UniProtKB/TrEMBL annotation:
Protein's UniProt name: Zinc metalloprotease
UniProt topology in membrane: Single-pass membrane protein
InterPro entries for this protein: Uncharacterised_pept_Zn_put
GO cellular component labels: membrane
Subcellular location, record wording: Membrane
Domain of life: Bacteria
Keywords: Hydrolase, Membrane, Metalloprotease, Protease, Transmembrane, Transmembrane helix
GO biological process per UniProt: proteolysis
Chief location of this protein within or outside the cell: membrane
Xref: Pfam families: Zn_peptidase
An example molecular function term from Gene Ontology annotations: metallopeptidase activity
Length: 286
């Protein structure tokens, strides 16, 4: 995917090793829901542990916003970081425009991206670690990414295409959009009211995020290269619950969706570029 270079005036980026210092900036936002991270099942993280962490979180401590010079250095520290910053710039522009189009531009706010450069770190949702894979914390409206996960994803999916990595960023960004629009809060409330449906609701939310990730790509189809769709499908298939668990976990305990479901959700978003289709076709799946 031929993304334009990142623009530090349009993104909010830091590193977990710098939290509380010059690189530690962040925007505190609403809590109330743990968005289960995209790589949870890969690394064996129990989503209920994160749920408990978030329920006790009060939004974190004060932090300092990074300077543009710091962000420039962070985004150019390695090729994966630069790709992620390119994607973040594009995602901010695309979703801000979509909010304006919907007449709610004043409601849009961009998330923060923190690159994990420490084995363990604090988040608004409780302790984090690189072993958890990429995840979004609604309490501080921050995406946390260890770029080493991209290598893990390449081994799992069998390709090293850039779109697979953009899909990761776009999926976590989609969880931010769910938070801003209130979708995640509604799903969390439904989970509390009906615990027996908690996993099914989690699957719905993850597939919805996959679809929104596809919407971003669909709205930038002029930048898509031949093979990007296939790269996305391979990545989505690699992180399906059925593939990750190898039959060791029953379907009723899935939290992200099967490979086929994840591929279908991403494809829907990419082919239509229409978030309303994601809402109507995925949020009604119960």
């Amino acid at each position: 995917m031929r993304l334009n270079p990142f623009d530090t005036s349009k993104i909010n980026v830091g590193t977990t090793g710098g939290r509380g210092g010059g690189l530690g900036g962040g925007k505190l936002g609403c809590g109330g829901l743990v968005v289960v991270l995209i790589g949870a099942l890969v690394f064996g993280v129990d989503p209920t542990q994160m749920i408990g962490s978030l329920e006790g979180a009060q939004g974190g401590s004060g932090q300092t916003v990074s300077s543009s010079e710091d962000e420039q250095a962070i985004c150019t520290s390695n090729a994966y970081a630069q790709e992620s910053c390119n994607a973040l710039t594009s995602l901010n522009e695309t979703w801000a425009a979509r909010f304006q189009e919907a007449g709610i531009g004043n409601q849009f706010r961009d998330p923060r991206l923190e690159f994990a450069d420490a084995q363990s770190f604090d988040t608004g949702c409780g302790p984090g670690s690189v072993g958890m894979g990429p995840f979004y914390c609604p309490a501080d409206e921050t995406m946390y990414i260890d770029v080493e996960f991209y290598n893990q994803l390449a081994r799992m999916s069998g390709n090293r295409g850039d779109f697979a990595r953009y899909y990761v960023v776009a999926h976590e960004y989609a969880h931010h959009i769910q938070t801003v629009t209130g979708i995640s809060g509604q799903i969390r409330s439904a989970q509390q009211q009906n615990p027996r449906q908690a996993n099914q609701l989690s699957v719905m939310m993850e597939l919805h995020a996959d679809c929104y990730a596809g919407v971003w790509a669909g709205r930038n189809r002029n930048l898509i290269d031949p093979g990007d769709l296939e790269e996305g499908m391979e990545a989505a298939a690699a992180i399906g619950d059925d593939n990750l668990t190898g039959g060791r976990v029953s379907a009723e305990n899935f939290t992200h969706g099967t490979s086929q479901q994840r591929m279908a959700a991403l494809r829907l978003g990419m082919q239509t570029g229409d978030d309303d289709r994601c809402d109507s076709e995925i949020l009604q799946m119960r």
